[in-house]
Write a structure and sequence with these properties.
Length: 205
């Protein structure tokens, strides 16, 4: 992408936003390997040369989306406070992650596809950003458990289970709605009730 975003005109910002939104649709549907610049250009209603003025390649668009997504994706975990009530902090994290699956399904699928395909475009971020944060918060959770404020469990696997149980509703939306038999029904209120009950029973001392 062109440098100096602060010096962009409104039209340039609008074009970048249109490309990003179109690419999110294309990548989340087809994955990185199954997507093309031509598909993204068509979805953004731009010519291919116009798109390539802003992003030189499919890889550049994909990396731009992932770099912006990483910070948003990890924010709910960052918000977990060591001095808060342990169970409520965990349940709030579950609710936030489930809300992200409801409100940001394309982003969830983009992230999942990237990880499934080996995280080629965000590998460094997993090591330098995601892992240190998860380790820090796992340490906080372990402290709560050591103090008897939560039932014992492996804190890293607890975080993994929260990811899998919340992001499932975005990554497998069609399957969820098909199995429930009501494609028009919002599954998230019942999902929240279920997950809150599940983790309360698992962790309440």
């Amino acid at each position: 992408m062109k440098d100096n975003p602060g010096g962009q005109t409104r039209i340039q910002r609008d074009k970048i936003a249109a490309i990003s939104d179109a690419a999110l649709d294309v990548f989340s549907t087809h994955g990185f390997r199954g997507s093309t610049v031509d598909q993204i250009a068509r979805a953004a209603k731009l010519s291919k040369p116009n798109l390539l003025y802003y992003f030189p390649s499919k890889e550049a668009i994909h990396t731009y989306l992932l770099e912006n997504l990483m910070d948003i994706w990890l924010d709910p975990l960052r918000q977990m406070k060591a001095d808060g009530d342990p169970l409520e902090e965990i349940l709030t994290y579950v609710r936030r992650k489930l809300a992200m699956s409801r409100d940001m399904p394309r982003e969830s699928r983009l992230f999942a596809n990237e990880v499934i395909q080996g995280a080629k475009h965000m590998g460094p971020g997993l090591e330098t950003v995601l892992k240190p944060l998860v380790d820090d918060q796992a340490h906080v959770i372990q402290g709560w458990m050591d103090d008897g404020r939560l039932k014992p469990a492996d804190p890293h696997h607890l975080i993994f289970s929260i990811w899998s149980l919340t992001q499932h509703y975005a990554d497998f939306d069609v399957q969820v709605r098909t199995v429930l038999g009501e494609r028009g029904k919002d599954p998230f209120p019942e999902a929240e009730d279920y997950l809150v009950t599940l983790f309360t029973r698992m962790l309440a001392p």
